[in-house]
Amino acid sequence: MIRVTNTPNLTGITVSGDFDDLDTLVDAIYDVTVSDYDEDLTKKDLRYLTISIRVLGFAYDVRHAAQGDREIYTEPNGLQEWHDEGLGATLPRANVRFACNILYPEAILVMMALNDLVKHRMHRLARSRYDFEAPLHKNVINDRTIAVIRLFQSAFADAIGDVLSKQSLTRWRNIVHDRITDVIGITHPFVDTWNLRYLDMNREARAKKLVTITKRFSEYRYDAENMGYRRAIDRAVEEKGWDENNLRFDGLEYPEEIEW
Predict the structure, then answer these.
(1) Would you state the pLDDT for residue 132?
(2) Tell me: the pLDDT tens digits for 204-220?
(3) For residue 129, what is the DSSP state?
(4) Which of 3, 33, 44, 164 is the most buried (most CB within 10 A)?
(5) Strand order in the sheet with 94-103
(6) How far apart are the C-alpha atoms of 142 and 97, rounded to whole Å?
(7) What are the residue ranges of helices labelled H in 127-240?
(8) Are 106 and 134 a contacting pair, CB within 8 Å?
(9) What distance in Å separates the CA atoms of residue 187 and residue 178, rounded to the nearest whole number?
(10) What percent of the chain has pLDDT over 70?
(11) CB neighbour burial string for 222-258, b if at least 16 within 10 angstroms, e if fewer
């Protein structure tokens, strides 16, 4: 089963599982995201392209974790000598788990983006334009991809619930799951700015900023900082013809080593 835990310094979260757990999560993310390589992309699908790229960046880390390129550890699996005797075999006493870390602002953004992408998938599966119809459609109820994504989001909610007070957790949930909340058009540099700003905080300050960060992301359309990045991006796209997803802004470089 996928687990989500807080890192010691509250720098981010650790996502862990066995190979099948992580591989299944990656496949589910591929299923809900939108790619340039998808056939028969509609104009509505293209709205989700930029945020999909951000979520696929997270999937990249999870996939490499499953391949053993991030962190590997073992844990007792509960097997004892009497199990060996009963089966006539020597069984391993530990299971191998793979893990990767993700910065907290990035993780929050991914959780919010997955809500948008799951909603988009629901409408495609149900072929309905109405929000209230799609979740109860048989194709949605039986969709394994959505079930995997929701299980992962639930694990994340448990992790952030270990940090926030009961009142703050309720507020956080209300922001993330508000019917009108989306992060479809949020800019990459705005998220990067918050990742780097968060890294400069101490553990206590980080805990206090999680709800604020979530609110800033949810209100990106009216956020002066995000709007400034949006104007710069739109200008570069119009004047130079550059793809906005390939733009890089000075001063937004991540450190090589992070104290998790």
Answers:
(1) 65
(2) 999 999 999 999 999 99
(3) S
(4) 33
(5) 3-6, 12-17, 94-103, 71-76
(6) 28
(7) 138-141, 144-161, 166-176, 188-199, 203-218, 224-240
(8) no
(9) 20
(10) 93
(11) ebeebeebbeebeeeeeeeeeebeebeeeeeeeeeee
Q: What is the pTM of this model?
A: 0.91
Nearest to 94 by CA among 121, 72, 127: 72
DSSP label at residue 14: E
- Beta strands 94-103 and 3-6 are unpaired
Domain limits of the chain?
3-246
| Integer Cα distance of 16 and 74 in angstroms | 11
User: Could you tell me the CA-to-CA distances from 95 to 2, 3, 14 in Å, in that order?
Assistant: 14, 14, 18
Q: Tokens 């060996």 — which residue?
A: 84
Q: What whole-number distance in Å separates Cα of residue 253 and Cα of residue 243?
A: 20
Burial class (CB in 10 A: 0-12, 13-18, 19+), 157: middle
Q: How far is CA 128 from CA 28, 41, 46, 132, in A?
A: 22, 17, 18, 9
Alpha-carbon Rg for the chain, nearest whole angstrom, is 20
Asked if residue 198 lies in contact with residue 105, where contact means CB atoms within 8 angstroms, the answer is yes
Sign, CA dihedral 96-102-107-109, equals negative
Q: Is residue 243 over pLDDT 90?
A: no
In whole angstroms, what is the distance from residue 154 CA to residue 169 CA?
13
Of 218, 213, 215, 251, nearest to 232 by C-alpha is 251
- Rounded Cα distance between 24 and 77, Å, is 21
CA torsion 29→30→34→35, rounded to 10°? 140
